[in-house]
Amino acid sequence: MLKKNMIILENNLYLKMGLVKILESDYNIYSDIDLSKNLYDLMKHYKPDIIVINDLSKNNLKHVKRIRSEYPNTYVVILTSIILEDEIHEALLAGVSGYVLYNIKSKELRKAMDLISEGEYYFNSSTMTIFIKSYLKLFDSKEIISHLFTKREYVILLMLAEGKNIQEISQTLNISEKSINININKIYNKLSVKTRIQAIDKAVKNRWIPYNLAISNLYVNYNKKRTLL
């Protein structure tokens, strides 16, 4: 099986060497890169499937937007020591596909990269909590959303868009699968739809959930012929 290509943009030499050691068996890795000088020339040559960027500064955010605009089949991962609530919203809108913490275990790192390279999103449980809090602010700021959905329904809709199944949603929210199903049916009834795809599509078109979060998982789930809710 052909290895996929990965570019790692990390200033810390020891951390970069550690990432290369863990991932080099699965990816062709290019890590000796100056972000400001030759990144885009190398992208044209290597056509990376994934780019790992150290932290999301304003300058790096500009690069993320450009990468996702010019290379839609290249996915961006943020490598960081801390995840900020205000940053997640902006990062998702820019096109970031996942956050990886410095202390991530080797097995989990491989899993994260495999998911992202297939066009899915990766968030660990703590990141998902921050993500939900971030978008609950959107819930509170848009009258039509709070009028249409309860907060629980809105969180479940977000998690459906993120690609989570009923069991995963149940575990994350610590409520029963039966309760999840009841809420999903309420969402479908309110939106006058019958499937997950229809619900997410309608929510995206009305800008109730972020396009970048939903669209990748819609197509990945469809192409893999997964069982849809």
UniProtKB/TrEMBL annotation:
Subcellular localization is given as: Cytoplasm
Q: What PROSITE patterns does the record tag this protein with?
A: HTH_LUXR_2, RESPONSE_REGULATORY
Instruction: Output the GO biological process annotations, alphabetical, semicolon-separated.
Output: phosphorelay signal transduction system; regulation of DNA-templated transcription
Annotated keywords: DNA-binding, Transcription, Transcription regulation
Q: Where is the signal peptide?
A: none
Q: Which Pfam families match?
A: GerE
Tell me which InterPro entries the record gives: CheY-like_superfamily, EvgA-like, Sig_transdc_resp-reg_C-effctor, Sig_transdc_resp-reg_receiver, Tscrpt_reg_LuxR_C
According to its UniProt record, where is this protein mainly located?
Answer: cytoplasm
* Domain named Response regulatory: residues: 5-117
Residue ranges the record marks as coiled coil? none
| One annotated Gene Ontology cellular component of this protein | cytoplasm
Sequence ranges assigned to domain HTH luxR-type in this UniProt record: 142-207
Q: What protein does this entry describe?
A: DNA-binding response regulator
Q: From what organism does this protein derive? A: Lysinibacillus fusiformis
